């Protein structure tokens, strides 16, 4: 067990499935105190019960990251429960793949609300806590699609993930020294993310692409690696994908 993880309070959004759920299990097993957020309270309750049964410390908050008040309440709950926050993992995301010619504007707006504004709300809520403490760690989940545009159909999704990487780099410049910033950019990893496309042909392509997916625990281990480093080491970006993935 790493004492660098065991001593930390970690907040995770999008924790009811996929990367967030796997990360909660992994960090909980390593001794972290967890505050888990998602829209599906029943899933959160089941996960929390599993972690507590193994001796873990966990609180849950039903929250939609596209609502600023929800994210502020999440951070307040973490501080009230554990007295501090050491790591804020902005994980919640939506991938709705479709050609731009389909003009799925509502889906574009939803991706912007979750993938960009949700991250910004997490930063806005946790940053004052980190500054008051004099320490903290943001971990923002981007994507390989934020390194190279996923095409066809992924233009807007890629745009949101490029934004996450840009925001994270700017945050690092502005707050570096005591506050660490890490971007995790996964490729095809098994999660519900692949189910977000309403355009039938694009959904088919995404389903085929994700046949090469690696387990969500792969990302959990990368997150743990970033967290467990000594305070003077800031892992700024990790890109990981299946060995067989070309994109």
From TrEMBL:
GO molecular function: oxidoreductase activity, acting on the CH-OH group of donors, NAD or NADP as acceptor
Keyword Oxidoreductase among record annotations: yes
Domain Ketoreductase stretches: 8-192
Stored Pfam families: adh_short
The protein's name: Short-chain dehydrogenase/reductase SDR
InterPro entries: KR_dom, NAD(P)-bd_dom_sf, Sc_DH/Rdtase_CS, SDR_fam
Similarity field: Belongs to the short-chain dehydrogenases/reductases (SDR) family.
Domain of life of the source: Bacteria
Keywords: Oxidoreductase
């Amino acid at each position: 067990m790493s004492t660098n993880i065991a001593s930390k309070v970690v907040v995770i959004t999008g924790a009811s499935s996929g990367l967030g759920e796997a990360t909660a299990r992994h960090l909980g097993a390593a001794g972290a105190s967890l505050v888990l957020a998602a829209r599906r309270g029943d899933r959160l309750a089941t996960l929390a019960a599993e972690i507590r049964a193994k001796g873990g410390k966990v609180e849950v908050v039903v929250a939609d990251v596209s609502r600023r008040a929800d994210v502020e309440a999440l951070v307040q709950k973490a501080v009230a429960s554990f007295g501090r926050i050491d790591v804020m993992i902005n994980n919640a995301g939506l991938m709705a793949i479709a050609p731009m010619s389909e003009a799925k504007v509502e889906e574009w707006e939803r991706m912007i609300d979750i993938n960009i504004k949700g991250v910004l709300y997490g930063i806005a809520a946790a940053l004052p806590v980190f500054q008051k403490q004099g320490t903290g760690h943001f971990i923002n989940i981007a994507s390989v699609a934020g390194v190279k545009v996923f095409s066809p159909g992924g233009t807007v999704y890629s745009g949101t993930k490029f934004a996450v990487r840009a925001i994270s780099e700017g945050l690092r410049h502005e707050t570096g020294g005591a506050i660490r910033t890490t971007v995790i950019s996964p490729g095809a990893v098994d999660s519900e993310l692949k189910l977000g496309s309403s355009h039938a042909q694009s959904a088919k392509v995404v389903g085929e692409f994700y046949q090469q997916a690696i387990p969500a625990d792969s990302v959990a281990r990368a997150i743990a690696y970033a967290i467990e480093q000594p305070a003077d080491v800031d892992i700024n970006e990790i890109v990981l994908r299946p060995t067989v993935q070309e994109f």
